[in-house]
Amino acid sequence: MTEQEALAIAKKFLAEKNTNGPGKGIYKWILTKPKDIGQAWYFDFEYELDDPDRIVHLESVPGFLIQKETQEIETVWWEDHKRLFPDPPS
Predict the structure, then answer these.
(1) Fewer CB within 10 Å, N side or C side of the chain?
(2) Which domain holds residue 74?
(3) Domain count within the chain
(4) Which tens digits make up the pLDDT trace of 3-42?
(5) How many CA atoms within 13 Å lie on the side-chain side of 65?
(6) Distinct helix (H) and strand (E) counts, the chain
């Protein structure tokens, strides 16, 4: 799967979340630059507020994967994120 194919799948996935998700009218998920991690493409979850003056506390998972072979979308929880992107040694 190419980066362009992954971007198209991610864009459709986020459009569905924005249309049918609980944040409708409050925030919308935006497309981020993918990271190639071998067997999958990783995307950060980022959002923008519909009303920038509104204060919203949003707890979320850090991102999602699109598997290159199957095009399956998987949520990346914080524990998974730490495993995929360990802190660099100091």
Answers:
(1) C
(2) 3-84
(3) 1
(4) 999 999 999 999 999 999 888 888 999 999 999 999 999 9
(5) 18
(6) 2, 6
